[in-house]
Amino acid sequence: MRTITSWDLFCRVVDNYGDIGVCWRLARQLVQEHGHTVRLWVDDLRSFEKICPAVDAQADAQRVSGVDIRQWTDDAQVANLLAADAHPGLHDVVIGAFACAVPEPVLTLMAERASEGAAPVWLNLEYLSAENWVAEHHAMQSPHLRLPLVKHFFFPGFARNTGGVLRESHLGAQRKTFEASPAAHQALWHRLGVDDLVHHNPDALRVSLFAYANPALAALVSQWEASPQPVICLVPEGLAAQQIAELMGDAGAAKTGARWTRGNLSVAVVPFAPQEHYDPLLWACDINFVRGEDSFVRAQWALKPFVWHIYPQSDDVHLVKLDAFLARYTPALTDADAKALISFWHAWNGAPASLDWNEFVAAAPRLRVRAVTWEQSLMQLGDLAANLVAFCEKQVK
Length: 397
Ligand code: TRH
What we know:
binds 2'-deoxy-thymidine-beta-L-rhamnose; Rossmann fold; six-stranded mixed β-sheet; 397 residues; 45% helix; EarP; eight-stranded mixed β-sheet
């Protein structure tokens, strides 16, 4: 009987940080919690370096946090790096993350192993979606057209019979320790360079803002300025920070340390943190704006009200996905709170609806309660890394 202890994970960065963000989190979890060997192939080490400064963007081969990282440029380089490796050949599982095609030399090696009766388990790890069809397609197989190989589709999701979402086993304990520690909060504010802002405004609502460029941001900034409760907006360097700088008439100033105050709103641009430092920001804020896939999931584990800027797709396909999530999340809320959440999320994502910050804030106490029941239901699905391991072990039994 074969066992599963090693993984080749291929990641193509389409844009931004979500593709590598998910792969990096998964790779570390397989190493740290399962004791497995992981070789992570990445075609864009610059994006990787942004979420993990320990990565050397020039290196073909390196090891960070116990994960073997390989630069993936072309097929020839993959073949060379495989041959040069201390463990030449493939690992037990080969994953094309976000449905990226694995390189030809890898397919050839997989076919050779198949002829020996020991083909690696081959998976497409798909994008996260709350849509109903995901459970029907999860774990489906597809035979290769030429080679004696079978690929499985592994879908993350929010429903039974999906792969679930990533969650480190120590995450809840880490969050609780942070929440109980004034020193940990202090260290966070210091790291972000906002100690003074936070301490001078103890009654302000703290908001973290991670978003794509967003036409609704101008209206939100106006509402924050006029908000009865002061708002501190902490915005990591990036698209939303640039947009706020433009709105403040200070285009070009969207660098760490920039500050603006208007009415009851204070904005601070904070550093784009290494990935493991992003969670504490979500834990320490009262309301979190998140985007894409990985930060969206982290906000759910932070147990705070959150607003999702979904990755925009052509023909507004993303709005279907947005509503699929809302359809799972909001039935547990009262009609009024569900309406506040749905219309805010719709307006934030460009669907016809009114953006009403005060209405959203009024619902926040119940949204915090909902965040807890949602966490409980998500945890019943198991975490994605453990589900992947169990799935792969089943394939080789
Ligand atoms: O960056 P994203 O928008 O990523 C993506 C990509 O656009 C991708 O192509 C698309 O397919 C996918 O979304 C759905 O958003 P996401 O997924 O939240 O990834 C951001 C990562 O950056 C996440 O791992 C958290 C991390 N991060 C930090 O490490 N430090 C920070 O300061 C912030 C704000 C985020």
